[in-house]
């Protein structure tokens, strides 16, 4: 099984901050890495796929990078609607999710 | 509009059986996998397994392999997740989502809440 490890598990940030979330795979997954956003009580939503491709309709302040085992999700300027939990997910071999990173208001 | 519509919330007792559904609309159903994802109360997302409705090729996450059965009926564009004997620890929200090959889960169902309590 491929294990996905996200860090940090939670963070506090202010509006306008640049936020970076890290995801590490237990083995190389090429660029088969996707990012999802989930707000409380809501369905997860795809943000980034293939490590760096922005899903249609997602604001350009979100970006992804990485290849192999190390990946990052960056929010360039945090907005009120970005306070949520973010999950990485690999689709290289079967499927597995990271543990999630909750972005809270500082 | 592309959407996945799941069956409604369930309240069951331990030991009971259950089958929940996920119906696809607005796309070529048999060209996408359907995955099932569990979210226990206050916890993260866990992939349970996936099915390719065209040929019923099914893959399970090891922790769920012996716990649930995933099936699909291509003719009515519906996938299923079933339990033969529920436990209290099966309480949670269950999402279905579609994905193509090794692609992302780009469309999600609204979730089905399952509560197992005596």
- How is the biggest beta sheet of chain B arranged? 7 strands, mixed
Shape of chain A: globular
Shape of chain B: globular
Number of contiguous helices of chain A: 0
Instruction: Give the biggest beta sheet of chain A.
Output: 7 strands, mixed
Uncertain segments of chain A are: none
Approximate helicity band of chain B: under 10%
Radius of gyration of chain B, Cα only, in angstroms?
Answer: 13 Å
Spans of chain B with pLDDT under 50 lasting ≥5 residues? none
- The number of helices of chain B is 0
Order of helices and strands of chain B: EEEEEEEEEEE
Mean pLDDT of chain A: 97
Oligomerization? heterodimer
How much of the residues of chain A is beta strand, in percent?
over 45%
N→C terminal distance of chain B: 40 Å
Helix content of chain A: under 10%
- Write the element-wise H/E pattern of chain A from the N-terminal end onward: EEEEEEEEEEE
Task: Give the gist of this structure.
The complex is a heterodimer of chains A (106) and B (118). With 106 residues, chain A is mainly β. Chain A contains no helices and 11 strands.
């Amino acid at each position: 099984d491929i294990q996905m490890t996200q860090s940090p598990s939670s963070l506090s940030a202010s509006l306008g901050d640049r936020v970076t979330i890290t995801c590490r795979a237990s083995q190389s997954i090429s660029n088969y890495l996707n990012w999802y956003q989930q707000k409380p009580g809501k369905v997860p939503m795809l943000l980034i796929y293939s490590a760096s491709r922005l899903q249609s309709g997602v604001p350009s302040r979100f970006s992804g990078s990485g290849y192999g085992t190390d990946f990052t999700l960056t929010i360039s300027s945090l907005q009120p609607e970005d306070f949520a939990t973010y999950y990485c997910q690999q689709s290289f071999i079967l499927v597995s999710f990271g543990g999630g990173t909750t972005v809270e208001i500082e | 509009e592309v959407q996945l519509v799941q069956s409604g919330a369930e309240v069951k007792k331990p030991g009971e059986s259950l089958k929940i559904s996920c119906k696809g609309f607005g796309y070529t159903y048999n060209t996408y996998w359907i995955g099932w994802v569990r979210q226990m109360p206050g916890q993260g997302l866990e992939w349970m397994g996936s099915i390719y409705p065209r040929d019923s090729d099914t893959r399970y996450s090891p922790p769920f392999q012996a716990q649930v059965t995933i099936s699909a009926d291509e003719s009515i564009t519906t996938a299923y997740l079933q339990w033969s004997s529920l436990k209290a620890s099966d309480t949670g929200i269950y999402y279905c989502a579609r994905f193509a090959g090794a692609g992302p889960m780009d469309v999600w169902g609204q979730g089905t809440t399952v509560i197992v309590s005596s």
